[in-house]
Amino acid sequence: MTAFDDLMAYQRETSALGQIAGRLGWDQETVMPRGAAPQRAEEMAAIESVLHARRSDPKVAEWLDQAEPGCEAGQAQVREIRRSYERTIKVPADLAKAIARVTSTAQGKWAQARADEDVTAFLPVLEEVVALKREEGAALAQGGNIYDAMVEDYEPYTTGSQIAAIFDEMRPRLVALRAAVLDRPAPQALERAFNETDQMRLSQKLATTFGYDLTRGRVDKAVHPFSSGSGSDVRITTRTNETDPFNCFYSTIHEVGHAAYEQGINPSFALTPLGCGVSMGVHESQSRIYENQLGRSRAFTGWLYGQMIDVFGDFGIADADTFYATVNRVHNGYIRTEADEVQYNLHIMLRFDLERALMAGDLQVRDLEAAWNDRFKADFGYAVDKPSNGCLQDVHWSVGLFGYFPTYSLGNVYAGCLYQALRDAVPDLEKQLAAGDTSCATGWLRENVQQHGGLYAPREIIRRASGVEPGPEPLLAYLERKFGALYGL
Amino acid sequence: MTAFDDLMAYQRETSALGQIAGRLGWDQETVMPRGAAPQRAEEMAAIESVLHARRSDPKVAEWLDQAEPGCEAGQAQVREIRRSYERTIKVPADLAKAIARVTSTAQGKWAQARADEDVTAFLPVLEEVVALKREEGAALAQGGNIYDAMVEDYEPYTTGSQIAAIFDEMRPRLVALRAAVLDRPAPQALERAFNETDQMRLSQKLATTFGYDLTRGRVDKAVHPFSSGSGSDVRITTRTNETDPFNCFYSTIHEVGHAAYEQGINPSFALTPLGCGVSMGVHESQSRIYENQLGRSRAFTGWLYGQMIDVFGDFGIADADTFYATVNRVHNGYIRTEADEVQYNLHIMLRFDLERALMAGDLQVRDLEAAWNDRFKADFGYAVDKPSNGCLQDVHWSVGLFGYFPTYSLGNVYAGCLYQALRDAVPDLEKQLAAGDTSCATGWLRENVQQHGGLYAPREIIRRASGVEPGPEPLLAYLERKFGALYGL
May I ask which residue range the UniProt record assigns to the signal sequence (chains A, B) (predicted)? Predict the structure, then answer.
């Protein structure tokens, strides 16, 4: 046994324990009895403490010093284990515990404040979270940029300035596109009820249509759709809304994008740092391209229209062109998670600028609501009516997820690059999608993105797959083309 | 922080990790995608390895040496932590790993051999298991009796000789009762189909009727019914068989007995060694008294008869007395898990004597089948027709569970003692059960048995609750009285 072998054997056990922690999260959101919550918190703390101890064990440093990985994958393993080790030891254990303690309280206070529409009830605990996260960021950055150090947790090898440059290029064109689209007559909306059992049945069909392997996964209902797990146990959840079947269908397709990424990774990487998606941004690129560029295309919605007629009978939409416009309806709204392709990224940029200013100390928590509302008015043209539609709408900040929001839009940007390359690689893509066949598209994504897991850095994997330097132009061109045609601009 | 406080804080985390391992087991039997099995084996091995390391950590020995627990419960905690520590360090790590490896293979080989009716295909791996378990038993016994050391894992503070003395008293009376009962005409059997969804619905009602708290538990379907978890997350499973609704109902009531024990434990013991059932025998005493003495009583079956009429309409049984006889029908059969109250313990005694002889070296694995078949003929009066109805029917030995079988019958013996005391404590018990009200009965069991968790040794808890020295007389008298009346002996 070489030092590298020892390191990998140890890491394999750590990864297995990490999978267990993930499965507890799935259990909590799907099947856990509600009275079990306090005990579950202790169970999660216990396994997180085991994971922390393993990730920062001095043995890991010794093995890392002596490891001589032969191949490219071995070098990537060592790179990622070193990154995790150094990240873990930089943060003092007391600080990590304080963050865990405060954020677990803060989430409850956030939920109550949102229900009560009472921002001031949330601000004191948010101040604590922000102060602790800035302290953590300073420990991680070691003199460098605090926000960059946080982004690193979700989108490694990417900085806040890089993201800001991308977003600066996107914002004016998205604001202009949004204004132009909303100036035009709105397409027809759905106006009847859709049986929820039938929604779930069609949803299951959509999952397999997009290549989800149900022998290594399962679909359940949960309040918030998510995908969880790596390797051969990757589960998704979706939800149903009687009057909005698209919520169910596109949540499913979105989560299948995440799950297919995990299921598509080279099996020899299983239970290693390379055996899961490389970053939140690349993860989101898969969920978004499945959901939007493929799932909301004219070709695929044509097939879906037929499926819905089969299941629900005539549901008041006359033809496939109208259905395509209905699926892609752009509408005013306050809520990020309900936003359409045109407006979604504007919601993200708002959060990115505010959280970056909070971390830099340029914005105080007490001024957050005003800053949010000003920015919303500037980009969307109307005022926030209540905090639950404004700065209290998302859970992220209460649980300390600073640096996470921009990865949603990076995912859209990456999906734009990938889709451009995919269309060149599969010339009859639209014909296939129109027949409900996604196999060439998902096969291309598996081959060029998914199988590599954590082997390459996020931007490198997108560069390799798309053949271009990752940037927002393909996404913007796609949105302007698609919605320009849909709205006759 | 005293040494005792440190010890308990550490133990609390260990217990939380133990709960996680249990939850993985539940997941595996209920919701896990089938393709996830190999990865799950690695996950289980990883958490078991963490648990083993924690249970045998030298820090535990230091704390144990210095701990000065003040109260009775503290002393019991120290006693149980010491027992676990000493048990863990006595078995060499290599031996523990070899047992884990061999038994995981052996279970598959057993299942295949059972399907093929091929005992010889199973014997080589069973020989390995027996050899390794004898080695483990010798390490644990340190010169003492090997089988006693194994019983200790499931029924602490109890020896093979104590059990043998109890069983020797039971066997002749049970053989005689069995023969007399089967000499009489058989009661009417069920002869129609019962909708499985309705079975599950009534099953859920039975669970709450017996006091199962669904805010801290849930009921799912699984191939083999079981109860899993402690504290505030105690889940049960049951199964349905279209022509045999009693299988579903009494499996549910049985598992609710186990679950109610866990749910009834003093909450201040949660996530400590006292926070779960003290032994398999006491556990089984709860499941059996719920299932048999209460659930199969004339009074309760009268109520159940009405429930079944409500749900299924007329199902061909004319009145409650006939129904009571049908529920308690004694019938020939080879399979332990399908046996009635009269014959169940005979199946156990057969296994107890054989496994005790195997561990003592008095019986060789190659002679096991013949020994099984001889004994079966002697007690039941007819010959085993095929191995799946004989020595291949149970999974236990393949996974190394020697010393486990007798706890099933100890549970029946303990249930007999408890029921005698319960009838004295609740004079109008039958009236309550006839109204479908188990609250006084289950309340008495909670107060006198369940709440104590691991505080007292198994025989002590039964002695305290029943006021008698635990022995088989109350059970035998109950069986002779009940089945004597039912069969007009």
Answer: none
Which CATH number goes with the domain that contains B209? 1.10.1370.30
> Best of A11, A12, A23, A227 to disrupt the B interface by mutation (most B CBs within 10 Å)?
A23
Q: Using the predicted structure, report yes or no on whether residue A232 has a pLDDT greater than 90.
A: yes
Q: Rounded CA gap, B24 and B17, in Å? A: 11
Which two tokens mark A260?
């297919």
B95 in a domain, yes or no? no
Tell me the per-residue pLDDT of A363-417, one tens digit each, with 9 for 90 and over: 999 999 999 999 999 999 999 999 999 999 999 999 999 999 999 999 999 999 9
Residues B170 and B45 in one domain: no
Which residue, B449, B399, B477, is CA-closest to B173? B477
Dist. CA B41–CA B47, nearest whole Å = 10
Residue B98 lies in a domain: no
The per-residue pLDDT of chain B, averaged, comes to: 97
Catalytic residues of A: 255
Examine residue A486 and state whether it is found in any structural domain, yes or no: yes
Cα of A196 vs its chain's centroid, Å? 26
Q: What is the pLDDT of residue A264?
A: 98
- B244 lies within 8 A of chain A by CB: no
3-state secondary structure A177-234: HHHHHHCCCCCCCCCCCCCHHHHHHHHHHHHHHCCCCHHHCCEEECCCCCEECCCCCC
Q: B130 and B85, same structural domain?
A: no
| Same domain membership, residue A189 and residue A312 | yes
Cα–Cα distance, A254 to A290 (Å, whole number): 6
**Closest chain A residue to B235, measured at CA:** A33
Residues B382 and B461 in one domain: yes
Residues A311 and A443 in one domain: yes
Average pLDDT score over residue span A105-126 = 95
Confidence of residue A164 (pLDDT cuts 50, 70, 90): very high
Asked which of A25, A59, A90 is the last residue of a domain, the reply is: A90
Q: Each residue of A305-350: pLDDT tens digit?
A: 999 999 999 999 999 999 999 999 999 999 999 999 999 999 999 9
- C-beta atoms of A20 and B19 within 8 A: no
How far does CA A334 lie from the centroid of its chain? Answer: 19
The answer on pLDDT for B358 being more than 90 is yes
Q: Which residue of A has its CA nearest to B25?
A: A20
Domain boundary among B90, B105, B132: B90
Q: What is the CA radius of gyration of chain B?
A: 23
Cβ atoms A372, A350 nearer than 8 A: yes
Among A23, A215, A270, select the one facing B27 at the smallest CB separation.
A23
Mark whether B120 and B73 lie in a shared domain: no
Helices (H) and strands (E) in chain A, counts: 20, 3
The H or E element spanning position B472 is: none
Residue A29 in contact with partner chain B when CB distance is under 8 A: no
* B481 and B426 fall within a common domain: yes
**Positive or negative: CA dihedral A168, A173, A176, A182:** negative
In a domain, A95, yes or no: no
Distance from CA of A8 to the nearest CA of B (A): 14
Residue numbers of the domain that contains B71: 3-90
In this predicted structure, the answer to whether residue A105 has a pLDDT above a threshold of 90 is: no
The two tokens of residue B40 are 């799950």
Q: What is the pLDDT of residues B81-91, one digit of tens each?
A: 999 999 999 99
Crossing angle of the two packed helices A344-360 and A119-141, in degrees rounded to 10: 70
